[in-house]
Description:
The chain has helices at residues 65-78, 90-99, 119-127, 142-150, 163-174, 189-202, 206-216, 221-228, 232-246, 251-260; strands at residues 2-4, 57-61, 83-87, 105-109, 133-137, 155-158, 178-180. It is α/β, with parallel strands linked by helices. The protein has 2 domains: 2-185, Rossmann fold, CATH 3.40.50.2300; 189-260, Winged helix-like DNA-binding domain superfamily/Winged helix DNA-binding domain (Arc Repressor Mutant, subunit A, Orthogonal Bundle), CATH 1.10.10.10. The longest helix has 15 residues, at 232-246. It is elongated, with a radius of gyration of 22 Å.
Amino acid sequence: MIVMGRGNYGSVSGRAGSFPPPHPATMVAMPPHLSDHRIEDKGMRMGEGHDQPVMERVLIIDDHPLVRDGLRSVIAVTFDGCAIFEAAGLDEALETLAQQNEFDLILLDLNIPDVKRLDGLKLLRQRYPILPVVMVSGAFDRTVVREALAAGAAGFIPKSMKRSSIVDALHRVVSGEIYMPDAIGAADPESEANEQIRERIESLTPQQRIVLNHLVHGRLNKQIAHDLSVSMTTVKAHVSAILLKLNVFSRTQAVIMANRVQFDGD
């Protein structure tokens, strides 16, 4: 079930709780095919005397300590006794997952340094197919949200959401729902403009995309020609075609447009 959030937007403010970090366990994470007995969804269990789902172990993956502290505070207050693990990058997270097991949820930042866009989500979904992964991001782009959900995310939480809305989102995900904020259904001119930019970049040939990537990295025509072992005339032809397809009039405009959608050559 996909649930539209009723969240209000504000800040994820609040001091981090003093929840102590759990001691490393000696257990090794079970491979996905041996963990199918967990499909009954531990998160669907209700605590005694409570009508809220139980979350016993969560992994937060974010390279910003303040963000991790904020999320830790929300989780520690909301889910009593929940063991909270943290990782500043995907490699560290994978090490934690290899040493620990029985996680109920992963909170994954969209823009961690060692991962391109949604590659981290796709890798986690491939290795741990029954473990819910919720994307957390400071930027709210409807296209990115849809791409994340299509790639298997169990939800998308903007960092600008209020604490009460984040709590509601976590409860829904742990209960087995897929969460996305209300704003995903609203018109967003900026997101639509970004989608048009992506479509224009998609229309480039593979060689033109390579040249555009060089332009984004500040390379001159002469340097690009040398790097690609082609003539200056060929490079100029590619640049002209790029400007035409992107509907811009200068290299600078093309670079600004590419950076706007975080084009990385792929």
